[in-house]
Design goal:
This protein is an alpha+beta fold. The chain is built from four helices and five strands. The strands form two sheets. Strands 4-1-5 form a three-stranded antiparallel beta sheet, with no helix packed on it.
């Protein structure tokens, strides 16, 4: 299949027959001659030739027989499956570690896509708020009562902007 490519001859906005707006940059915006905008406004475009000479044999290269330097498709598929299995093993080890530490709630639906990533994110978010190495959180809460509203620090007013230096052309008085 051959594609006729066109290039915009003007800068600006153009509206297609469906009401969509397109920004055109002269000499840079390329399009397919079959596009509805090009069909509706052929005066905004001119033919664009691409010259990529090739003097090789068409039967060489990766598309010839489905082979390339890295091996055949069955070999590639086997390699990808081996990599995927390695990832499965790593993820299973993470899940097992979280289970043994009691970090996976019993009511968690482990059949939904992305459950493990969400669980790990939730665990990390909790660890930022509560330091896991600290003593029992309930005991810490009992020993450190919250200060009354009057003892809390007041919010500060926003800082004033620093004066801008005078520009080189400004006259001093």
């Amino acid at each position: 299949m051959t594609t006729e490519i066109v290039v915009a001859t003007r800068n600006g906005l153009a509206e297609g027959p469906d009401g969509a707006k397109y920004r055109l940059a002269r000499g840079r915006t390329l399009g397919d001659a079959r596009h509805p905008l090009v069909q509706a406004h052929p005066e905004l475009f001119s033919p664009y030739a691409i010259d990529l000479p090739y003097e090789g044999n068409d039967h060489d290269g990766p598309s010839a027989g489905g082979r390339d330097d890295r091996g055949s498709w069955p070999e590639k598929v086997a390699e990808v499956e081996a990599i995927a299995e390695g990832y499965r093993v790593q993820l299973a080890a993470i899940v097992e570690g979280l289970h043994t530490r009691g970090l996976v709630p019993a009511d968690l639906d482990t059949t939904t896509e992305g459950w493990l990533a969400k669980l790990v994110s939730d665990i990390l978010d909790r660890s930022r708020v509560e330091d896991p190495s600290s003593v029992d959180q309930s005991a810490a809460d009992a020993t450190a009562p919250e200060p009354p509203a009057a003892d809390r620090p007041r919010k500060r007013a926003p800082r004033r902007a620093a004066p801008r230096p005078a520009a080189a052309g400004d006259a001093e008085e």
